[in-house]
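[Discussion] Sanity-checking designs against the backbone

I'm trying to build intuition for which residues belong where. Below is a structure token string of 691 positions. I'd appreciate it if someone posts a full sequence so I can compare it with mine line by line.
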């Protein structure tokens, strides 16, 4: 019997004080460990005695030399914070090929629709890209969506995006590539900082952080709170008395500490707690997502380099579905507790100056279930109570080797995964508690292999040529396996028989950077996801998650950067010819749902002194289709955003931001003519402390 099946629903979407206590205790322990590493108690340190310099970095091991053999783009801290919206997903939109399931950001979309993918390999709401924060996978253990509202741009040093399948640590999730968020250190953040902004609708965005030395390390405590009444996502002509603004209220708190144990070994600890609540389309259509994460990481930078990481996550999700015809609740997804835990260990033995060998193992476990109540739209009575869930695990062993041969760098990697899909169940009861349907699903397990390899040739003059090929794996999420969902009037059914997705792909590209002022890259790729999980239309109001033959995406991506004194240009564009393949199906050859052919972004900025900045960003997203049959169109849209930061003193700046300044109509959903809209023209202004 499944151990969750108690018949009782226990809400876990409130912050657990123990989590914050553990985070604070970890940072205190880091301070004590730092002093102990010097052989004295903290109070006995004599400042008059000169000690050897110890450099605290606060990140994982550096990328291997051959990482540049793959299509990689980095966003620095200026690019992350200088957006019109202040959202991290907005900054990621500057990477051509990045997409979420819908065009909405984390203020006006359902959290469960915020999966991250690359290279137009979407088609459903689950992440096909691996998203890491300081090495920890951030995808929700049950749904696979990314809690973007909990990832604050101002806390980050940079983001590294690698397109294409991966086979290294946690490679089982890097089907379409990897997005790595790296937290900022003390020098980057400064000892204090924050901002308070308000927009023309009276909404607010506030942040603050305090940072300081912990012995020879450092600690940072930061918080963010976003709240607002939102805008109407429903067009004026379609609004009814029950129509509601996209109200949102979200906060997050993070505590992070870094301390050296020796001159080559560093201990890192991080705790994150967040809560995010939204209302979508109708009064009472409320959703929430919450989480508490904690991680410990030990990094060795000596002759034998290593990276050891362990983490635990507690997450929850709730959602109320309101009928679009009677405007009353018809489904209460009242509780979806989930737990994720895992870790990795990687070691790089000393094998010579021209060789980098990586050996490692990683593990992930996702466990969760849903509790939901179906309600009659006519009587308001409970018609059904549902409970479903399961456990997924993945154990991976990986090896990768980079060989430097003069101007030529070769890399090859292999990964072996042992996966399990087990303890799956679905139970439906009537209002009186009598069982209507009770199903348990057979446990499944297996081994699968993934490989990747590449070559990088330095042709001189700043020109580099590269080529790579790879395979990758993704397990279906617990959500895809066991949880149906409704975007009224369409119901999408789960499928407990879903098989793993498998990617096969190759690419070739050039990087040209004759000076620090100019950088250009272009990549042609061919990627195919075999057994892709898609929402397949069965009839006008019913879809089902199914493995289709493949999603095949071929295209070209290009990035360009130019810096002339205080002026800087950053651009990214991608064209992708993507098709869903299923012999004999009505959708065979169609574009996957929500997948544009063209996406592009261009930002022109001007630096004013050390902290001032003016930036304008133009983005274009091509035509998309709501469903696999291409029956409902999301028109192409071009938007203009702006960011202005004017220093008032050394530590204080005045900031203005603009979202969608041309007030373009952004259609985010179109189901049979029922439309949702994205962010209208919005102006922000306020004061910023620090950088």
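Best answer:
Here's mine. Compare freely.
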């Amino acid at each position: 019997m499944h151990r969750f099946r108690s018949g009782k629903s226990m809400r876990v979407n409130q912050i657990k004080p123990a989590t914050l206590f553990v985070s604070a205790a970890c940072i205190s322990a880091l301070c004590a460990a730092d002093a102990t590493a010097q052989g004295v108690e903290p109070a006995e340190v004599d400042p008059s005695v000169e000690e050897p310099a110890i450099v605290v970095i606060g990140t994982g091991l550096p990328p291997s030399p051959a990482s540049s053999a793959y299509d990689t783009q980095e966003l620095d801290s200026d690019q992350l914070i200088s957006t019109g919206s202040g959202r991290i997903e907005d900054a990621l939109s500057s990477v051509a090929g990045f997409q979420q399931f819908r065009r909405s950001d984390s203020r006006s979309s359902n959290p469960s629709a915020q999966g991250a993918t690359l290279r137009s390999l979407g088609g459903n709401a689950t992440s096909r890209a691996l998203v890491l924060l300081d090495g920890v996978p951030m995808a929700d253990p049950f749904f696979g969506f990314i809690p973007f509202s909990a990832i604050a741009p101002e806390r980050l040093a940079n983001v590294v995006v690698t397109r294409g399948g991966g086979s290294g640590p946690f490679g089982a999730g890097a089907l379409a590539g990897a997005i790595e968020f790296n937290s900022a250190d003390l020098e980057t953040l400064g000892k204090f900082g924050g901002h308070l902004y308000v927009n023309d609708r009276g909404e607010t965005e506030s942040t603050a952080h305090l940072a300081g030395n912990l012995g020879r390390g450092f600690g940072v405590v930061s918080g963010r709170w976003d709240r607002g009444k939102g805008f109407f996502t429903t067009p004026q002509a379609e609004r009814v008395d029950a129509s509601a603004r996209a109200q949102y209220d979200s906060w997050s708190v993070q505590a992070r500490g870094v301390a050296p144990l020796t001159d080559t070994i560093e201990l890192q600890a991080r705790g994150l707690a967040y809560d995010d609540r939204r209302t979508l389309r109708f009064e009472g259509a409320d959703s929430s997502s919450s989480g508490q994460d904690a991680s410990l990481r030990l990094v060795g930078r000596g002759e034998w380099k290593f990276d050891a990481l362990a983490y635990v996550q507690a997450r929850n999700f709730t959602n109320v579905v309101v009928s679009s015809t009677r405007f009353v609740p018809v489904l209460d997804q009242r509780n979806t507790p989930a737990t994720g835990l895992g870790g990795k260990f990687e070691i790089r033995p000393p094998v010579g100056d021209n060789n980098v060998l990586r050996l490692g193992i990683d593990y992930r476990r996702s466990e969760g279930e849903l509790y939901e109540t179906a309600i009659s739209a006519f009587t308001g009575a409970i018609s059904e109570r549902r409970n479903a869930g399961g456990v997924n695990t993945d154990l991976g062993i990986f090896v990768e080797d980079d060989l430097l041969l003069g101007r030529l760098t070769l890399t090859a990697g292999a990964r072996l995964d042992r996966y399990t899909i087990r303890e799956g169940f679905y139970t439906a009861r009537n209002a009186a508690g009598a069982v209507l349907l009770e199903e348990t699903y057979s446990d499944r397990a297996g081994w699968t292999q993934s490989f990747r390899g590449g070559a990088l040739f330095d042709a001189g003059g700043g020109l580099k040529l590269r080529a790579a090929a790879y395979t990758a794996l993704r397990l279906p999420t617990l959500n895809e396996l066991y949880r149906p969902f409704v975007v009224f009037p369409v119901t999408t059914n789960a499928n407990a028989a879903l098989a793993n997705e498998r990617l096969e792909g190759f690419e070739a590209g050039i990087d040209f950077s004759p000076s620090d002022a100019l950088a250009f890259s272009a990549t042609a790729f061919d990627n195919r996801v075999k057994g892709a999980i898609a929402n397949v239309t069965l009839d006008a109001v019913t879809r089902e998650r199914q493995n289709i033959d493949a999603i095949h995406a071929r295209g070209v991506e290009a990035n360009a950067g130019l810096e002339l004194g205080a002026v800087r240009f950053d651009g990214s564009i991608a064209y992708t010819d993507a098709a869903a393949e299923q012999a004999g199906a009505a959708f065979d050859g169609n574009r996957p749902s929500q997948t544009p052919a063209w996406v592009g972004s261009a930002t022109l900025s001007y630096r004013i002194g050390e902290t001032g900045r003016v930036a304008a960003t133009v983005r274009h997203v091509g035509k998309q289709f709501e469903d696999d049959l291409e029956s409902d169109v999301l028109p192409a849209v071009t938007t203009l955003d702006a960011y202005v930061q004017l220093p008032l003193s050394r530590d204080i700046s005045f900031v203005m931001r603009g979202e969608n300044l041309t007030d373009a109509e952004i259609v985010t959903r179109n189901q049979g003519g029922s439309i949702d809209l994205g962010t209208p023209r919005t102006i922000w202004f306020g004061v910023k402390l620090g950088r």
